[in-house]
Amino acid sequence: MKNKVIPNPILPAAGVRRNIAADRGSGPPSGGQHDDNTLNPQGRVLSDHSTPSDALMRCRRPFVMGTFNACTVREEARLVELAHCAEERGVEILGVQEHRRVHPDDRIVYRRVERCTFITASAWRNEDQAATGGVGLMLGPRARKALRQVYHHTDRILIAEFSGNPVTTVIVVYSPTNVAPAEEVEKFYEDLATAVRDVPAHNFLAILGDFNARLGPEDAPYPYHDSTNRNGTYLMALLMEHELLAVNTMFRKRTGKRWTFQDRATGMLRQLNYILVRQKWRNSILNAEPYSTISSVGSDHRVVSMRV
């Protein structure tokens, strides 16, 4: 059950088959942000859909969000460094996987770190009682002010909603690995599909995740890998069913700007982390790519960010 806390161009991207993209027209997307027909002549009360001053998404005011597997921020120094890096790089919303902070109960925890706010759902303990997983959000001041509510959907899925025109819904996810039992991966994607279906069609939806999935050129225009693995097949099914895009495969980048993870034992590079948005918002994404700018936190992953 959901525990609700209310505190306050080009080429088709992953999720769009090339033959489908070729058949589509170029008309305006349906259900866009211009559906408000309420008139507001001078002196009249504003429409219910008018954008408040604390709105996250506003026309001509771009912002940055990203996803980052931290590999642990249990130590205070790592957490402070993460907040410092996010603020310094102007990342207003950062989805965090594997924070490995275990809470005494199921409540969502809010923590002020520097000028940021760190919101977490509890990690869990494995058979050896070691802290594992945990999803959360590092919010800058602008995003924190726009925050409406946060939901703990499952241990691997956290959902947040922000004021704006349109309203922004962010889902932070941490997928089982590619060698995890198939039923575990299937359950994760069933839970994620349920969460996506619950998001209103007119909301701007961003899924920030470590999907532990590889996409090949048959499924994405600019991937790092030559083929799609098992988890990638599940990911593609989600993209196709819900008309989503993996935005960090949309832009032509050199190979060195595509990988998101480096195996410390072998040095091998992989692309496992993705940001997903609905296809109708593809023209609102100004850029998306991984960066090594948060390497000082000590993770083997790079942050993937997009400018909206």
From TrEMBL:
GO molecular function annotation: catalytic activity
One protein family per Pfam: Exo_endo_phos
Matching SUPFAM superfamilies: DNase I-like (SSF56219)
Domain Endonuclease/exonuclease/phosphatase, chain residue ranges per copy: 67-301
InterPro entries: Endo/exonu/phosph_ase_sf, Endo/exonuclease/phosphatase
Region (Disordered): 20-52
Protein name (database record): Craniofacial development protein 2-like
Native source species: Gymnodraco acuticeps
Gene: LOC117532884
